[in-house]
Design a protein that fits this description.
This protein has 409 residues and is mainly β. The protein contains 2 helices and 23 strands. The strands form 2 sheets. The chain has an 18-stranded antiparallel barrel. The chain is globular and about 65 Å long. The two termini are 22 Å apart.
């Protein structure tokens, strides 16, 4: 641990103007020590890094992946990226959370507020006030598979492109397309990198990958590219905001196959009401149909290390409420989430062919999750105090106290 700290400090000393922030977070029986550094190499190039030291029993408010600890102490690079940005273009390379521009605050179909940080390259083109194009390449985790008495290593990639149109000053409409691409030692597929091409149609002209496929399926082997598409609409004025999104994971182009395979989708609607500059109320509803995010592609599920990138489980329904009170540098927020689920999870084997499952049938009520937080930027002893209850099914209620310490070098 001392060596890691020394390396971070040594690297920081080479940078000209460095903003450092330490934010120790203390809870009963656990702690976390985020160390953030930020600097502008030029007016258009930014370097950002956030390291985490924490006890392996610490409860965070989103997924953090770790598989190694020393004496129950964990070190991870939670965020680390280099970004170029000007008025018409931005390019980001590194590790970060993908929900920074998410229109929903409680749930997410493709960019969940709970999802872990991901290694990615992202290109944003915004040279018009009416149009924006986003292209993203994400490197997911590797997986091992014993296949024909041989251990295979599968590389997993996630590609996404999204086009957003501002229809007027208050509303935007977007369409997106994505694919989870896997295979033994599989590298980048160039035909998925073009800014305006269709992933699905490009794939139709190429050779499919069947690495590790199960040939016992009644419809034979599938390919290792799990495609999906989506639409979203956002309306905003001084008091109201409405955001709606649909994520289509499976829809049969051939009419002959529609009796064999049900449409697989996710739906989300978020409504916010802001009566004045002090208060804001948000309600969200999300529905995951049976088999959402699952696929017969080998390791083609929409997750990383089995931590969800969207909703937590297929065949589930979600209700959320968020209250926010913002008074200058003092803020209070309360979030409550409730889920009803069935017997499907992200580790469920795909078995959707000739196996239609009711959409609105849920067998289990999941205990609610809640997060109460008070923050004061100018607090003398603490800048944040939070109470987290049953996050990610932990059954725990924990108190967290956070203090920000800012340094400039």
């Amino acid at each position: 641990m001392r060596l890691i700290i020394f390396v971070l400090v040594a690297c920081a000393s080479l940078l000209s103007q460095l903003n450092y922030q330490f934010s120790p977070e203390i809870s009963l029986g656990s702690f976390s020590l985020p160390m953030r550094l930020e600097t502008e190499l030029t007016k258009k190039i930014k370097l950002f890094h956030n390291s985490l030291f924490f006890t392996n029993n610490h409860q965070f408010n989103r997924y953090i992946w770790q598989s190694y600890n020393q004496d129950n102490i964990v070190y991870v690079s939670d965020i680390s990226y280099l970004e170029y940005s000007d008025s018409s273009l931005s390019i980001k390379f590194g590790r970060d959370y993908l929900d920074r521009e998410n229109q929903s605050k409680i749930f997410g179909l493709k960019d969940s507020p709970d999802s872990p940080s991901l290694d990615h390259l992202e290109l944003n083109i915004r040279n018009s006030k009416y149009f924006r194009l986003k292209n993203r390449i994400v490197r997911l985790d590797n997986r091992k598979l014993e296949y024909n008495d041989e251990e295979l290593i599968f590389n997993r990639w996630y590609y996404l492109k999204e086009m957003e149109v501002n229809t007027n000053s208050n509303s935007t409409f977007s369409i997106y397309e994505g694919v989870i691409s896997t295979g033994v030692d599989r590298s980048l597929e160039w035909y998925y990198l073009y800014p305006l091409s269709s992933y699905i149609m490009e794939h139709k002209h190429e050779i499919s990958r069947y690495d590790g496929q199960d040939s016992t399926y009644s419809i034979g082997k599938g390919d290792n590219d799990n495609h999906f598409v989506g639409l979203s609409f956002n309306y905003l004025n001084d008091k109201y905001k409405i955001y709606s999104e649909i994520f289509v994971d499976e829809w049969q182009l051939d009419k002959e196959s529609r009796d064999n395979m049900q449409t697989v989708f996710g739906y989300l609607i978020s409504t916010s009401f802001k009566p004045n500059n002090l208060y804001k109320f948000t309600f969200e509803y999300a529905l995951a149909s049976p088999w959402l995010y699952l696929n017969r592609a080998t390791f083609g599920t929409f997750e990383k290390h089995y931590q969800p990138l969207g909703l937590k489980d297929p065949r589930s329904v979600y209700y959320g409420f968020l209250f926010e009170r913002n008074d200058k540098n003092k803020k209070i927020s309360l979030m409550i989430r409730k889920q009803y689920k069935s017997n499907q999870s992200l580790s469920t084997n795909w078995d959707a062919w000739d196996n239609k499952v009711p959409v609105f049938q849920f067998d289990e009520s999941v205990d609610f999750e809640s997060h109460l937080e008070y923050s004061n930027d100018s607090g003398k002893y603490f800048n944040k105090i939070a109470i987290r209850h049953n996050f990610f099914g932990s059954k725990l209620t924990t108190l967290h106290m956070i203090k920000h310490i800012n340094l400039k070098i």
